[in-house]
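Teaching assistant here, posting this on the class forum so everyone can see the example we discussed in section. The complex has two components, and the goal was to see what a joint structure prediction looks like when all of them are supplied at once.
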Amino acid sequence: MRCGFCLPACPTYVETQDEVHSPRGRIALMKAVRDGLITEYEEVEHSLNVCLGCRACEPACPAGVNYGSMLEEARAIFQEQKKKSFKEKATRKVVFDQLFPNQKRMKQATGLLSFYQRSGLQKVTRKIGFMRLFPKHLAEMEKALPKVPKGIKRESNYFPVNKTNEKTVAFFTGCLMDTMFFETNQSTIKLLQLAGCNVHIPQTQNCCGALHGHSGELEGARQLAKKNIEAFEECEADYIITNAGGCGAFLHDYDHLLRDEPEWKERAEVFASKITDFTSILVDMKFHEQNTLQLTEEIATYQDSCHLRNVMGVKDAPRKLIKSISNVTYQELPRADQCCGSAGIYNIVQPEMSNQILDHKMEDVKGTKAHTIVTTNPGCLLQMKLGIQKEGLQDTIRAVHLADYLIEALQEK
Amino acid sequence: MEQAVIDQLIEIIGKENVKTGVADKLAYSYDATPNFQALPDCIITPRSTEEIAKIVKLCNKEKIPIVPRGSGTNLAAGTCPTQGGVVLLFTYLNNILEIDEKNLTITVQPGVITKDICDAVEGKNLFYPPDPSSMKISTIGGNINENSGGLRGLKYGVTKDYVIGLEAVLANGEIIRTGGKLAKDVAGYDLTKLLVGSEGTLAIITEATLKLLPKPKAKKTMLALYKKMEDAAETVSSIIENRIIPATLEFMDQPTIRAVEAYANVGLPIDVEAILLIEQDGDYQSVEADMLKMKDICLENDAIDVSLANTEEEAEGLRQARRTALSALARLSPTTILEDATVPRSEIAKMVRKINDIAKKHNVHIATFGHAGDGNLHPTCTTDLRNKDEMERVEAAFEDIFSEAINLGGTITGEHGVGEMKSPYLAWKIGEPGVELMRQIKLAFDPHNIMNPGKIFAKETRKRVVI
């Protein structure tokens, strides 16, 4: 089937109007490689690299083509075949084998960032224009980074609730979320408790493996998946809750990732079936009806997390929660379902396209006259912060994670 | 293609607008038609009619094929570059030039997306009726070249009924303008109508003026469910016989309903044999009256349920779902091959029965949906290209369907065009003298056969076994 119905859903096609940068084109290229019609792998790889991996083409596809897994597998094949340069190998090794799977190192890394921000070094480097030595997009991103919280330590790994009809959930903390966005995780736990959930935080959990999977490091992703499945099997929760769309979608697809491993297949299916986004469970448990939510008058808008919407199929719950806050006027963002250009590490490796997409996104944001952009994924949150900064709108617009926004609106804290 | 020619193309439109990479060629090697793929030599994105004129002149001199391409949603291999050459895109010629509210016309460049035209004029209380299922991505240039139809065809006609003026580049590089913002114009042959539906084989269309209608004040949508396919088909004929022309009268059989519902999730009943999606628009009172009358007719023809859509969102959901039918059927099998044989609408029940018999005879799976109200059915074979034996049976089944459609006074294609896919069957419909006349017309326009060669005209007509 090559009907082309995916084309208008694809942000890179919309930007370029070029079939090479469309889902249909990319699938044709992957197929051509498989059939041996093409040996110029670099051109194909370029097309795949420009893909955001937002998977907006999937809900748009009447035929139900599973583009996401095709992309991951194609990237994995390229990864295997390509003779990697030493430098790339080294960075990949650090990022994929050491940094992300290791929460302690992740904390150290963000700790360094925290030191950089707190020590005044950040101010100094900004003043002397040190960042000017770097490519523009990295310099801009540096400015948009949030303040890393001081002491990243949780007092407990179990947060019970005194309420009847409670549910037991396990919280997937995520590496970026539990370091740079530690406060957001704390907010999420609190919201879950208020909704009536006993919250477990399995200690042996790990990075979800999304960054590995999306970059063709499938074996690394599988290793992490197995560790996580083991970690969460121990606490026998009704649901496994995520508050980052990107991680959630990847966890949600563990059954697919491990489909060829008989001893893991079933366990992965059980795990995947429990994955629930925090907004869905809050709405299901009527959190927004049982708690008073109120803010001073303002306009809020919502940028979908691609993977939350396109893979996990969640689009109404976050909007419902925002709309339930008194004095907040919800203004739907035109094309909210189109990627903001963050897409994992896309904004670092494909800055040009990412910026083009972000610029158009910010035009839409300005049109809503919103004071607050709400997001449900750390990558989107950072990207929206970057967009606000690029437009010089820091004084009029802010970007927040929905969990923090709800805590802010909570009347009896 | 020689490098020297590519260099000359670059000279005309600049390096950034001439692509020759393998990935680029691959991405423009196909359209939406299964089993057709061929690499072009280069892909170009000119920015003006004048640039196109220079390009065509060059290609004419060098005898290089030019394939104009919109979004590549063609279903008859009309935009597959089977003879190589240049794929010409309208990426930068995608502007609405004018909406003339005094003459009720819109003037557009070929690269404008069909739905954007509909939306733009509806904002001004005007109406552009042709609505092919791919309207969200198809371009108006593609629609004009294929003379596309759509869901509203039976009441409002097809693309050709709305194109009143064109600008086009001829094979010799001359630029012509035909028609205009005119309700009447008999100055010579009707070149506008000749170019519409010419599938890029005569000229490159570079601008079009389209006729608009006032937007209907009211619109209602309903769904009728049937236990038997024939009852649905009888309803269609009965509605027309009762002097009602609904805006939409769409048919879907059970396999189609199930595939569509699996995707769209709009609450279609998956246990019925067939459904009709019926719409009427116009002023409030006549819409109301027509809908009531049609409801009665449905029930008289043994519909087991007839219900109105309660909201516009619900109605739009149903229309959208119907538009995905062909693609959704791909859930059933790796390959879906569809035809658009069309019969006089009085013969629709007969044709539906014949299609079922033919499917049984050749042991193939055929799901049928389509614009029942205008006799335009889309029997779709769910199959697998890799299964050679089945593919032969599929081809045999389609030959029978074409043949049967013609026996009933119909045609081999109602709205998708001949392209390369149906060219072996063209003579079945119009006869050898008809094909020969068309060939002469083509020759007069394009003596070197550079304009989308290989389309419409087959090397050989398929032998017709008369049953």
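For the discussion questions: Chain B touches chain A through 36 residues (CB under 8 Å). Residues 29 and 39 of chain B are 5 Å apart (CA to CA). Think about how each of these relates to the inputs above.
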